[in-house]
Amino acid sequence: MKRIFALPVITLLGIFASFLLFGCASRHIKTETSEIRSEDGNTAHLSTDKNVKAQPTKEDFTTGSNPSKNHPDNIRLHNRLIKQFGDIPQVHTYIRLKQKLERGIGLSIDEAIELYTAEVYLYPTPAAKEMLKDLKSDKKRYERLGIPADVPVLTDTPPKENLPPPDFVLVNPFTDNPDNPSPHNPLIRKFGDIPEVRTYMRLKQKFYSGIGFNIDEAIELYTAEASLYPSDATKANLKRWKKDKERYERLGISMDRPVLRYTGETSYSNGRITTILPDGSKTIYDFRAEGDRIEVPSQAESTYTDDASDEKSR
């Protein structure tokens, strides 16, 4: 009888021991699995660690705050960049330089490096790091070649708008009279003696003379240019000026105030670099122009002649 009762006891002890062994084995397997995932780079098991900063993603970057809605020196506390990174110098730098780009002002090589240094700190993506590396290399090359450090090298222009207009003909507007243009003028030869050519030449002369355009003159210039060169960039500028005029009318802003002016400083626009020299003359670097540049005399005394052979001297 004792042996009969002993069998169930032994059986129960065996089952209990099996459970213990199975439980230990299971816990050991889970531990090894976690270690293997760690070695393979799977960070799922680290997601509970609040001190671990996740790698930036494209979504993180594109959902940042609109820089134009904040003053870079006095950023609102609910700004998404402030909430994500804190009120740190890199955020102020990023917003300040992004605002400058959005206003259509190109960044110099030093400003471009400053922008991407801040961006790499906030969003250390491979693309941002590569861009920063390229800009630093460009700066060394500029110093070696003697290129001015204040020449804009970075603009916020979409790639398709950065291309020259189709069949673009760039001429020095000061070399002809817009009210009586020479038949040898490249614009006349290409488009004919039409009102748009005369308007384009007249307003370009005024622009490069440093006289500011009012809103109507800006629209007139880009309307003529869009007729001659219907590029995406020109159409976008014309659309923007027309919207600005509607806003001016709605807000009661004077239509006579200058809204577009040649500042005389080095500027970058649509692949063109313009500089003003101490004597008042201007040099416009443009790969579309003959010789890659246009020299604008300080008094704008040069003119076209009726001698076709003189064309080669321009």
Number of helices: 10
**Biggest beta sheet summary:** 4 strands, antiparallel
Number of domains: 3
Shape: globular
Measured as a percent range, the helix fraction is 40-55%
The unreliable regions are 1-7, 19-65, 158-166, 300-314
Report the span from N to C terminus.
125 Å
Measured by DSSP, the beta-strand proportion falls in: 5-15%
Following the backbone from N to C, one meets helices and strands in this order, namely: HHHHHHHHHHEEEE
Mean pLDDT: 69
Q: For the largest beta sheet, what order do the strands appear in spatially?
A: 1-2-3-4
Which oligomeric state applies? single chain
Descriptive report:
The protein has 314 residues and is mainly α. It has three domains: 2-46, no CATH class; 65-156, no CATH class; 160-313, no CATH class. It has ten helices and four strands. It has helices at 2-40, 58-62, 80-85, 89-102, 109-122, 126-145, 186-191, 195-208, 215-228, 232-251, and strands at residues 267-269, 272-276, 282-285, 293-296. Strands 1-2-3-4 form a four-stranded antiparallel β-sheet, with no helix packed on it. Helix 4 (89-102) packs across helix 5, helix 5 runs antiparallel to helix 6 (126-145) and helix 9 (215-228) runs antiparallel to helix 10. The longest helix is centred in the N-terminal third of the chain and has 39 residues, at 2-40. It starts with a helix and ends in an 18-residue tail after the last strand. Residues 1-7, 19-65, 158-166 and 300-314 have low confidence and may be disordered.
